[in-house]
Specification:
Order of helices and strands: HHEEHEEEHHH
Number of strands: 5
CATH superfamily of one domain: Beta Polymerase, domain 2
CATH architecture of one domain: 2-Layer Sandwich
Oligomer: single chain
Mean pLDDT: 75
Helix content: 25-40%
Structural class: alpha+beta
CATH class of one domain: Alpha Beta
Number of helices: 6
Distance between the termini: 129 Å
Largest sheet: 5 strands, mixed
């Protein structure tokens, strides 16, 4: 007589029953609302994320920003003394890693572009600010002057419209400036036409 082999079911073949809770808890609060929404199969509204909170500037950073703004305004004033056209001061603090303010001005001709750039450098040197770099000098089309926290662009006006630097920073706020009537582009065009 031969013995009969009996096989035990392996673990994957066994069914295990999970214990049921004896009593159901009553849900309250957000869980209950969520449970009802799932039960009713109503679509839920997407959750909007809050906009990022801008960090407040520390006192030292606020002082540096005020000094940068004073430098930028001094650069604009120096450019206006040399009869610059359409000055714009853009606040890029927190949006740019290389500057806090960008000043953009125009000249009516190539000689005036160079004169404006020289005037800005001289005026800021009188305040103890010397440029870290200067590009495009003596070509009369576009001069870029880097003061570290302030970058000044001096354009020949028709070329400024081609490069359109201001549109690169369209979301950045503009600093309000007092611009004399003769520093408007339409006034400059009338002045050039009459000469």
């Amino acid at each position: 007589m031969t013995k009969k082999k009996t096989s035990k079911p392996t673990v994957k073949h066994r069914k295990t029953a999970r214990p049921q809770a004896a009593t159901k808890k009553k849900m309250t609060g957000r869980g209950a609302v969520r449970s009802r929404e799932v039960a009713n199969k109503r679509p839920t509204r997407p959750v909007r994320e809050a906009p990022p909170i801008l960090q407040a500037l520390r006192p030292g950073e606020e002082r540096e920003r005020r000094e940068s703004l004073a430098t930028a305004k001094a650069a604009i004033a120096a450019a206006l003394e040399k009869k610059a056209v359409e000055p714009v001061l853009i606040d890029v603090c927190g949006r740019s890693s290389y500057a806090d303010f960008i000043a953009v001005v125009s000249g009516r001709n190539d000689r005036q572009v160079d004169a404006i750039a020289d005037g800005v450098c001289e005026a800021l040197a009188a305040h103890g600010r010397h440029p870290l770099g200067r590009e495009g000098a003596r070509n009369g089309r576009w001069v870029l002057i880097d003061f570290g926290d302030v970058v000044v662009h001096v354009f020949y006006h028709p070329l400024r419209e081609v490069f359109d630097i201001e549109s690169l920073w369209i979301d950045a706020p503009r600093i309000k400036l007092r611009i004399p009537a003769e520093a408007r582009a339409n006034a400059a065009a009338g002045h050039d036409a009459s000469s």
